[in-house]
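Tokens for Prohead serine protease domain-containing protein. Go.
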Amino acid sequence: MTNIEKRAATDVKASGRKLTGYVATFGLETRIGDFRETIRAGAFSASLRSNPDILALVDHDPGKILGRSGSGSLILAEDQRGLRFELELPDTQLGRDISALAARGDIGGMSFGFNVPEGGDEWAGELRTLKAIDLREISIVQAFPAYSGTSISVRSRYAMTDAARRIRILELEGGAYVESV
């Protein structure tokens, strides 16, 4: 498997044992290191049609599953704004913990892991437009998402060590941290 890229969003709402919000927002330009990036409307459509089982995780950890589209506990759909999600949290300790944190507003936000298929992006100078995204998973981010107040997150262009990634993100966000690869 190739390196999976990740980005985060802060738009999460809790209602009982259900989380809703946006994992990504279309058309917003984000600075990522030495380039800018935006997601084109419809970028997730092929992936949502072809991948019947997208996972909902905590902090991108495959050992912390909260739901999956294959079971119906995770619903993903594109609309005019972006990629919307609804997640029915499980009655497990992890699910209850996430529910309590979300109800208090302590969740950092949402994130998603993805690959870009061949031809799925285009460059115009330093601007990268994502036209097609192979969605692998979405994640609850317990710590600091990037670009608070938006639905876009940060990731590096090249694979980095965890330490280098944290340092770079701290530099970009003035102290905030988000998972990125």
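Helices lie at 45-50, 93-104, 162-173.
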